[in-house]
Amino acid sequence: MSKYKLVLLRHGEGTWNKENRFCSWVDQKLSEDGVKEAQDCGRLLKEQGCKFDLVFTSILSRSIQTAWLVLEAMDQEWVPVVKSWRLNERHYGALIGLNRAEMALQHGEEKVKLWRRSYDITPPLIDESHPYYLEIYNDRRYTTCDVPKENLPRAESLKEVLDRLLPFWHSTVVPEIQRGKTVLISAHGNSCRALLKHLEGVSDEAIANVTLPTGIPVQLELDENLKPLKPRQLLGDQAKIQAAIKKVEDQGKAKQAT
Ligand SMILES: O=C(O)[C@H](O)COP(=O)(O)O
User: Fold this and answer.
1) CA distance 15 to 6
2) Beta bridge partners of 54
3) Which residues of the chain have pLDDT under 70?
4) Which of 37, 149, 171, 179 gets the highest tally of CB atoms within 10 A of its CB?
5) What is the pLDDT of residue 221?
6) pLDDT of 2
7) pLDDT given for residue 177 in this prediction
8) What is the tens place of the pLDDT at every residue in 36-58?
9) Mean predicted lDDT score pLDDT of the chain
10) Which residue in the list 13, 37, 89, 156 is annotated as catalytic?
11) In this predicted structure, what is the pLDDT of residue 88?
């Protein structure tokens, strides 16, 4: 018998997902397809009889917008939403804004795969000359964090994402789950991967092969120690999910941007 249910969700497609650019801490809204993905996800969760008590999001609009659309489609708009920068997408440093396929042409697909999926390789740091530096660090939302702005990351490996996420997980999310609340975490590809690594004890090597498509709920059934009782379930049409995973993986294939 499972004790707790937890749903992790990578937001619906964002405008830069469509353009195949590293989006990371740049605040982008959902694309039209992304809005539809989030609504479909909400409908699916409603059909499954899912009832959330609490939702956590990052402080990036695409994860918040996704949570709203999911709750709206479920007729559960009243459910409280708590936001934290600690659930933000991985900080991709100097890679932010660049096109993955073009980076693969310039640096090779292997290098891009290492940047995207290795556990402990940090991409090159962002600095003040970067075109998105000011947009990110002058944004008022980063004055609301529980660390001073100067201490926010300038680039992160997946390991560093997990290091900043775990304090929030332990102090804020775990107690709510243990109080019996059914929680949705509407976050990002890499913040969800980091959490999955932690919960499932995925090895540093094997996490490179875990890819999450946009807008697909990942359901976990946990015991009283928050250990998974069975393999994660990606909910929805399995053939479509496999195709969506391949699409995300193929974003790192070398090709001229169109
Ligand atoms: O930051 C981004 O652009 C994506 O949401 C995650 O990108 P990735 O699939 O290359 O890690």
Assistant:
1) 27
2) 183
3) 1, 256-258
4) 37
5) 97
6) 76
7) 98
8) 999 999 999 999 999 999 999 99
9) 97
10) 89
11) 98
Instruction: Name the residue of 190, 211, 253 whose CB sits within 8 Å of the most ligand 1 atoms, as the mutation to test its pocket.
Output: 190
User: For ligand 1, atom 7, which residue shows the shortest CA distance?
Assistant: 22
- How does DSSP assign 31-59, residue by residue? PHHHHHHHHHHHHHHHHTT---SEEEE-S
Helix, strand, coil shares, percent, the chain, to 5: 45, 10, 40
Which domains are assigned to the chain? 4-250 (3.40.50.1240)
The amino acid that residue 244 corresponds to is A
Scanning the structure block, which residue is given the tokens 């900080």?
A: 91
Q: Which two tokens stand for residue 152?
A: 């926010």
Evaluate: CB of 76 within 6 angstroms of ligand 1.
no
Strand order of the sheet with strand 81-83?
A: 81-83, 54-57, 183-187, 4-10, 217-222, 233-234
Q: Is 130 a catalytic residue?
A: no
